[in-house]
């Protein structure tokens, strides 16, 4: 997964991926009783992938943490609600078996992402991970 982009020393590699942007939602059709209008957001994300003991595990052990922030800077009156700040915090510890195609992981999610319809939630899960 690193493809030469990670930094650090032989035994500890890391990759930072910051993102800043704007988002515009224009809701033109919705179920009965649901508001249609528009809203604008400023977004910021910081994702860090950490590869402890990179030399020993051949970069198959990955700790990923992500912090996302969305701030509603414009909302039409129909969509205006008191929650103008949206946070999403995730953490994932994954170990890929040889070949880096199948792995097991422990994931933690806390927050929401209104752009993708991810409601405010908090959970921890054990998962089987498969890459194409």
Structure characterization notes:
There is one protein chain. The protein is mainly β and about 130 residues long. The protein has one helix at about 55, and strands at about 5-10, 10-25, 40-50, 60-75, 85-95, 100-115, 120-130. A seven-stranded antiparallel sheet has the order 1-2-3-4-5-6-7. Strand 6 (about 100-115) and strand 7 form a beta hairpin. It starts with 6 loop residues before the first strand and ends with a strand.
The order of strands across the largest sheet is: 1-2-3-4-5-6-7
Q: Gap between N and C termini, in Å?
A: 12 Å
Mean pLDDT: 82
Secondary structure class reads mainly beta
Order of helices and strands: EEEHEEEE
Largest sheet: 7 strands, antiparallel
Instruction: Name the shape in a single word.
Output: elongated
Give the strand tally. Answer: 7
Rg from C-alpha positions?
A: 19 Å
In DSSP terms (H or I, runs of 4 or more residues), the helix count works out at: 1
Roughly what percent helix? under 10%
What percent of residues are in strands? Answer: over 45%
Low-confidence parts, pLDDT < 50 over ≥5 residues? none
């Amino acid at each position: 997964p690193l493809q030469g982009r990670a930094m650090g020393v032989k035994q500890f590699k890391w990759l930072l991926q910051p993102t800043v942007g704007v988002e515009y939602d224009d809701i033109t059709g919705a179920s009965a009783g649901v508001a249609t209008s528009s809203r604008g957001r400023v977004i910021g994300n910081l994702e860090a992938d950490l590869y402890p003991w990179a030399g020993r595990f051949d970069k198959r052990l990955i700790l990923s943490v992500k912090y996302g922030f969305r701030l509603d800077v414009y909302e039409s009156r129909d969509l205006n609600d008191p929650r103008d700040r949206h946070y999403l915090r995730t953490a994932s510890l994954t170990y890929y078996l040889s070949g880096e195609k199948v792995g097991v992981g422990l994931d933690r999610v806390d927050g929401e992402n209104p752009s993708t319809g991810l409601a405010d939630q908090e959970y921890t899960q054990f998962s089987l991970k498969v890459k194409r």
